[in-house]
Design goal:
The complex is a heterodimer of chains A (189) and B (166). Chain A has 189 residues and is mainly β. Chain A is built from no helices and 15 strands. Chain A has strands at residues 3-7, 20-27, 31-32, 34-37, 46-53, 63-70, 78-85, 90-98, 101-107, 117-124, 133-142, 148-157, 166-169, 175-176, 180-186. Chain A is globular, with a radius of gyration of 18 Å. Chain B has 166 residues and is mainly beta. Chain B has strands spanning 4-6, 8-14, 20-26, 34-41, 51-55, 64-71, 76-84, 87-88, 99-105, 115-122, 128-135, 143-152, 157-163. Chain B starts with a strand and ends with a strand. The chains are: A mainly beta (189), B mainly beta (166).
Chain lengths: 189, 166
């Protein structure tokens, strides 16, 4: 069978699409209770956060939820809808009037130390002050043993303010070493 | 905060002739943070199941596991696979309908963690799937291989992008 191959390093003329810009990255050196992106520029149309994560400590768990608060708002101003699968069962859930929205999962301490979850969160139309802010997440962890978890999440922040900061937390245990999250801005036309 | 344009196209492969069974992206630069692979493909002959492998210098035949969540149009379900020789990521028909799949290789070049890959697969005539795949290696990924037994159909396209964090 023929093989069609591309040697990526020999492809000339890389072209920057230009509409997707890196804003900031946080990589955890030891452990941290939270990852915060603050003073977010208001010059983009959408934001995307991409990263790998692992719980920092506490009781052993297969996975830990990643919570998100916007603009430091700790009030009961969030909603979440989730579709999830644990490798055996698919399910759906909803949380309303909570003080955070559930945007992803981090690998828990019961798994091999080298395993990290993967998470992508989109914050859509984040500067618009005429509507509440909608978020979505694709996140999952698999550890080649008895557990895996995949989440498709939708979050709502019940506030019309522009988003200027994002704080990710893992309840009580924080983020572990080598967890790394990067914030990107996506321009409109 | 620093800002810089990113999300760069690295390479694109378009299949012609219907006699290609393996597509590779090799020599991938480690200068990005994440890779995104956008696939639009189908089988040249009969229903077939394309497989993804990654590696450093060549495609690794061990160390894969995954957790999947999918909907059939009537119900949702989830399943897991452990200790696989690759990641079977879709069902490719031999009809003209292309199946679209997007892979996100997260933090692919670090040498500290195993590599997690997020995938979304869309088959308008079959399942809609989301998955997380684990490659149990701390090696940087610089090689991606897609394989299908009955060859990729002509017109199938595969584009690799790089995203660099500040």
């Amino acid at each position: 069978m023929p093989i069609l191959g591309t040697i990526a390093s020999q492809v000339p003329g890389k072209i920057s699409v230009g509409a997707f810009e890196s804003i900031a990255t946080v990589t955890i050196g030891a452990s941290a209770s939270a990852i915060t992106f603050s003073s977010i520029p208001q010059t983009y149309t959408h934001l995307q956060v991409r990263g790998i994560g692992r719980a920092g400590g506490g009781a052993a768990a297969d996975y830990n939820g990643i919570n998100l608060q916007v603009n430091g708002d700790t009030g009961s101003n969030y909603k979440t809808h989730q579709l999830y699968g644990d490798g055996a069962t698919a399910g759906a859930s909803a949380q309303g009037s909570t003080n955070l929205t559930y945007m992803g999962v981090a690998t828990g301490q019961s798994n091999t130390a080298s395993v990290f979850s993967a998470t992508i969160v989109d914050i859509l139309d984040y500067t618009n002050t005429n509507k509440y802010t909608t978020l979505r997440a694709l996140s999952g962890t698999d550890s080649n043993n008895t557990y895996g978890y995949l989440q498709l999440g939708s979050g709502l922040w019940l506030n019309t303010a522009a988003v200027t900061s994002l704080t990710f937390q893992i309840s009580t245990v924080g983020f572990g070493q080598y967890s790394s999250f990067a914030l990107y801005g996506i321009k409109g036309a | 905060m620093a800002a810089g344009a990113t999300y760069e196209p690295i390479a694109t492969t378009t299949v012609s002739g219907g006699s290609t069974s393996t597509i590779t992206f090799s020599g991938i630069s480690g200068s990005y943070t994440d890779l995104v692979l956008v696939c639009s493909g189908n089988s040249n002959s009969g229903t077939d199941y394309p497989r993804l492998r990654v590696g450093n210098g060549s495609a690794s035949a061990t160390g894969y596991s995954d957790t999947q969540l999918y909907g059939t149009g009537a119900a949702g379900a989830s399943y897991r696979e452990t200790s696989q020789t690759g990641f079977i990521f879709a069902t490719y028909p031999a009809t003209s309908a292309k199946i679209t799949t997007i892979f996100n290789f997260m933090n692919y070049s670090n040498t500290t963690t195993y590599k997690s890959v997020l995938m979304r697969d869309n088959n308008s005539a079959g399942n809609v799937t989301a998955a997380v795949m684990l490659w149990q290696s701390t090696s940087a990924i610089n090689y991606i291989e897609l394989f299908i037994t009955n060859n990729f159909a002509s017109g199938s396209t595969f584009t690799l992008y790089g995203i660099a964090a500040a």
